[in-house]
Design goal:
heterodimer, A: mainly beta, five-stranded antiparallel sheet, globular
Chain lengths: ~110, ~120
Amino acid sequence: KQEVTQIPAALSVPEGENLVLNCSFTDSAIYNLQWFRQDPGKGLTSLLLIQSSQREQTSGRLNASLDKSSGRSTLYIAASQPGDSATYLCAVRDAGNMLTFGGGTRLMVKP
Amino acid sequence: GAVVSQHPSRVICKSGTSVKIECRSLDFQATTMFWYRQFPKQSLMLMATSNEGSKATYEQGVEKDKFLINHASLTLSTLTVTSAHPEDSSFYICSAGGGQGYSTDTQYFGPGTRLTVL
């Protein structure tokens, strides 16, 4: 059974810092991996989706990498802003479109 | 495109009552819909997968008689929490697998429904 772990569980940084969120998964037979953002009490916003054949995806200040063989993905946030404060979830998808979520990283960016 | 809505966004009910939550794909037909539950400060946990016109597949530990799922059309799935109890209070999120014209390798998420059982 796929297990997804996110480290750290919580992170607090001053504004402007570059930061890395980590995601690891136990079964490398994934179809793709997706990073989401969730604001308190809200639904999910998809940030980046990396296909299993890809190594990374970029969108603005966000860069996600994928190393499928080692079961790892990272989400890099450049020049963090207070508006980036949220919970970040990674999820891996199998060939049947089933998602397994990690526990999330709660990010706080202080002004 | 690929918008998924949920109704209601928030519901408060008394213990013992039943609550129905609707999940709609607004601009595409979704053959598969997923229901997740999220407790405070925890991640999303898949409850069940529903395919249009067939019975839902429940994850281990989810009571199918308590959480009734109906996927009667390609744009609507409903989750009914029967005889709700305070421990059922949670954030329920649905998602829809992409149908014709939309990516089939992703899920499109609704905004969630906050259920509070008194």
